[in-house]
Amino acid sequence: MPKRQVFFSFEYDKDNWRASQVRNMGKVSNDSTFSDNDWEAVKKDSDLAIKRWINAEMAKRSCIVVLIGATTSTRKWVKYEIEKAYELRKGIVGIYVHGLKDSQGNQTTKGANPFYNIYTDDGHRLSNYVTAYDTNYVTSKYVYEDIEAHISDLIEEAIANAGNY
Description:
alpha/beta, 5 helices, single chain, Rossmann fold, globular
């Protein structure tokens, strides 16, 4: 199975450490990862510049992987990224990362499904069609291993279902 180019969407300030664990699993193309410096530079720009950057990055990808932390569903740019992926008929999948430890060794609480308050063109909740994967494990080591074992299949499934919502 080829490594896919995906767009990772997550709440940068709270989940960057968790996201880097997932991004560095080696399950997606290296072209999928952008440096933390890229985002730090972009987020200082205007909303229009941020949208342009997101649009350009997403155009290169076959799937968006939303890494769901405690407050991801409330983030403006995560919502924009999901809506853009839907508009472009990209594969969309969510993976809960609250069980992974942050840089301080802490886990967090499970957040709300970010697809729940986004609606399809015919008025259905996107959460009816998009997987939000949540492991059954609670220990960070096992959460990591479970995500690592499933992420490729989740991405392939999302790509296969792209546009079927």
